[in-house]
Amino acid sequence: MLRALSNLEDYRTRIRESDKKILALVRERLDMGAEVAKLKHERNLPTIDADAEQITIGNLVQSAEKLGIEKSFATRLGELLIEETIRVENSAQPESSKDQLMKEMFELTQKLIRQGRKVTRFEIGEPNFTPPKPVIRGLNSTFQAKKVIGYGPASGLPELRSAIASELSRQHKTKIEPDQVLITPGARFAIFATITSYISSLERVVIPQPAWPAYEECVNFAKGRVVPLNTQFEAGWEIDLAALESELKKGPKMLVLNTPSNPTGKAIHKETFNQIVELAANHNTMILSDEVYDRYVRSPAPSILESGYKNSVYVNSFSKQFSLTGWRIAYLVTTKENALRIRRVLQTAVTCVPEFIQNAALVAIKRGRNEASRQIKAILDKVDLTCRELNKIDVSFNKPEGAFYVFPKANKPNFDSYAFAKKLLEQHSVSITPGLAFGDYPEFFRLAVSWPKGQIPSAIRAIGAAIESWPQ
pLDDT under 50 in the chain at which residues? Predict the structure, then answer.
């Protein structure tokens, strides 16, 4: 018995010595990570390299198989090492959040407004028209009748889900059932709930850019990996299908599409859209299709709902359709199985969307479309006016095919749209969003066109004057 105990302590001592050696190797690995961070900083490269991480995990799994170690353990160990290495790299080279960059411009604008300055606002993606009168009356009648009740179903009111399913079925000539619809507190949360339901540590998500920064923020929250697929101004912001296929071959979990696009206003053409869906299907990649600007078009844009592709989630919102941004109500459509999975996030995080808001949204669908459509047409006319005015100053841009954004490029060498946006706001009281909020586009800036028509010409002239005075 004493001999056995002695052997046990001997093993424990040897294990502790092995642990020290393992930690010494980890320390060596982290030190190399810090050196890698310096090289990346010198070469202006991002901290995270999804391809390199995939190779690292593959190498560990292959080595584990040879050593008779479980592949799942090797994968978990690899994930832990990668996360710690990134933490060390980020401490040497902090990365700013694109979403924070957008919010910073919003907050600077709000600060000036509180000080009494009149600001022409191009920085906030808000329709800025009064919600349709029937919607306001519907909300008021709910309170007057004291129909504000307690908790509702996490999926949303059955009558609202049925109305959405019926409308989408007619619009897209398909068959959608109410159980495929989930009501969410805003489109951002629909996207968040979808990504966190399906993306795990280090899993890859392909995002064509320029892109709304919230997609990347949601992927980062889930500890997934964003694979940016840069599109080019010179190519009309078209997605390069060969480049997309190359990334899909690497096995990403999800592809995010946004059509019409925020910030470019690009609407994916039907033929291209069908080819994208076919590529995703060939590689079993889920598509998250953000179509919140689908009403802001002169002619209908293609929808994932028309494709018949089951491995997908469609997102839309009452915010953009009916100018209910502060009401926080949107919806997603997917398979019944996917809906049940995503609903768990809704149940856990928010319980349900308030029923009085859902009742007002139901009124919007039934009696608010005509009024909202007139307002949307007026906004599209403002976009056309903005484009005419932009033609008079030293910028280049592709005329948007949808949404209410224009994404011009300043024709100045070494143009820094972040510094420019701050200077423009301070000196000319015009707010814009710098292109770096949407990807690696420092020479571009976004104009969200929805504010009073009369302010547009003078604001564009101010932008032109500021560009002219920008140092070479």
Answer: 1-2
